[in-house]
Amino acid sequence: MQIIGKAEILKHVDVRAVLGDIENGFKAFAAGKAQVAPVTHLGFDAANGECHIKCAHVADDSVFTVKLATGFYDNPAKGLPSSNGFMAVISAVNGTPLAILQDEGVLTDLRTALAGVIATRLGARSSAKTIGIIGNGIQGHLQAKLICELLGYKSVVIWGRNAEKVAALVKTLGSELPAVEVAQAPTAEALCEQADVIVTTTPSREPLIQADWVRPGTHIVAVGADSPGKQEIDAQLFAKASQVFVDSPSQCVEHGETANAIKAGLVAEADLTPLGEALANGAAPRSDEDITIADLTGVAVQDAAIAKSVWNSVERNSARP
Amino acid sequence: MQIIGKAEILKHVDVRAVLGDIENGFKAFAAGKAQVAPVTHLGFDAANGECHIKCAHVADDSVFTVKLATGFYDNPAKGLPSSNGFMAVISAVNGTPLAILQDEGVLTDLRTALAGVIATRLGARSSAKTIGIIGNGIQGHLQAKLICELLGYKSVVIWGRNAEKVAALVKTLGSELPAVEVAQAPTAEALCEQADVIVTTTPSREPLIQADWVRPGTHIVAVGADSPGKQEIDAQLFAKASQVFVDSPSQCVEHGETANAIKAGLVAEADLTPLGEALANGAAPRSDEDITIADLTGVAVQDAAIAKSVWNSVERNSARP
C-alpha cells in the first residue's frame, strides 16, 4: 500500500478517459451492476465538522473504492482548508489495500464536474449555445471549463452572490479558454435570459432561480444540493419540466432538488429518469421548447470510476522499465 | 498522513492501557456518548470475498477511527492471508487524516481478545479458576494468553475440532505462560465439566456446546458469532442464564448468539444487559450457581479505542527529542 499525493494524482488524471469511466459507472449503477453502500455519516458538532464515507464497486472491476471526506467548517479561521479526506483503492480480487489517494478533495471536485458535463451532453437541446453558471467557487469554475473543453461550448455567463469573485472567475476563465466568450451576469434573472443550459453549483439553502425566470428550451443541471436542507432552484420548475434526470433515484428523493419538488407534489417518483438508464438507452426526444432538469447529488460510482482510472494509470506507469 | 505497518504498530500497543481504553469505549457507547455508524458491507461473490467498514468516535476524543476489513476466503490457496485491511485515524478536531494503521488484522484480533478479558472479569464468579477455550485459532490463543496474563488465571483447558492444532496451541501456551497449567480436553463436553469460564472463539455455524453440558456457576463468553448465520452455543443455554451481557444490543439482537435465542423465544430484548452499562454501574450480584453469558459481536468503539491508543503512543514518541 502506498500514499499518493495530490500533485502525483493530477499527473494521472485523463479527463476524457474518466468521463467515459464515470458514464459507464452510472450505466452500471442504473442496471443494478454496481454496489453502492449507504453513505455513512459522522458528525462533530463541537468542531462544526462532519465526515462522510462512500463506497462503491462496479461489477467486474478489479478494484473498489472507499472515499472518506471530511468537512470542518471552522478550519479556514485556523488556516486550514474545510475539506479533507482520501480515496482508498482496494483489490476486489483479493481484498488487498493498494493505495490511499490523498487527493485533498480534487478527485471529488473533478468527478462532480464531469457528471455535470455528462448531464449537459445528455439533456441540453442540440441548438444550445450558452452555458450559465450559478456560483463562483471551485465547482462553478470546473463546470464551466470542462463543459467548454469537452463539449465545445463557446459562450459562458456567470452569476454568483459575490460579484467580485465572479469578476475574478470571468477573468480566469477568459485566459484559460481563449476561444470562449465569458461574461458576468448582473443578476440570476439576467443569467436565465441568456443561458441555454444552467448549471447551479452553490451550497444555497434557498432557491436562487425562480421558475418563471427560466426560458423554454432551458436545461438545468443542479449540482449543489448534495445533502438535506440545500436548495438552489424553485421547486415549481419541476412542474414545468418535461423530463427530470436523477443520478441516484433514492438519494434525489431523500435530499436534492427533487426531494423538495416531491414534497410539494410537483413531481412523482415514477416520473424520474435515472441518469444511467438515459445514458444507456438514450434520453427521450425533447423539443426546443422543453425545460429539462438533471438533479445530481453525487454517487459513489463516480468516485470508484475516477479512483480506478488514476490507479490504473499509476500501475501502468510504474510497470514501465 | 503516514502509513504505519504492523511491526511498528505492535511496538505501540500497551495491552493494559488498551484494556482500560476499551472499557471506557464500552461505557461511552452504552451511555450514548459514542457515535457508532451502521456497519457497511460490500460483497465480492466472484472472489469469495467481503469487506466491512466500521467507524466510531467516542465523545471528546481528539481522533476518530474508520476500519476497513476485508475477508477473501480463497486467498490462502494463492498464498495470501484471508484477512486484510487497515484502521484510518482522523482528527476529530479538524478532519485531517493522520495515519493509516496497516495492522494486517492484528489490532482487530487484540481488541476482540481484550473484550473477552473484560467480559470475563465482569461476569465470572469470584471462585472461578479454570478457563475453557473452544477453538484453536488466533483468537483462542489470544484469549487464553491475555485472560491469564491480565486476570491471573492459572488453569486453561482447550478443545477444538482439530486435535493436532489444539495440541500445538497447548504446547505454545505452556511455554508462553510457564505459571499456568494448560491442558487439552478430549471433547467439548469434557471441557464443560472442567471450565468455570468458557470462551468460544470459532466461526461455527452450529452449536458446539449443548445447554445440558454446562455446569451451574459457569460464565460463557461467546466471541465467534460476529455475523448472521454463525452460532457456537445451544440457544437453550439462554433459558438457563441468570444474566446476559451484550456488547451491542442492536447487533446482538440482529446476529450473534442472542439473535438465535430471541428467535426461539428463550430471552427477551428487555432482559439483556449492555456490557458498558454493567461496566459503569457494576454487574448485578451473581451466586456461585448462576449461569451467565456475555455475547460479543464486536463494536467499532473497540477499534476506536485501540487505534487511538496506538496513535497517541506514536505521537508521544515522535515528539521526543
Automatic annotation (TrEMBL), chains A, B:
The coiled-coil segments of this chain are none
Give the record's family classification.
Belongs to the ornithine cyclodeaminase/mu-crystallin family.
From the Swiss-Prot or TrEMBL record, give the protein name: Ornithine cyclodeaminase
Q: Which domain of life is it from?
A: Bacteria
Enumerate the Gene3D superfamilies for this protein: NAD(P)-binding Rossmann-like Domain, ornithine cyclodeaminase, domain 1
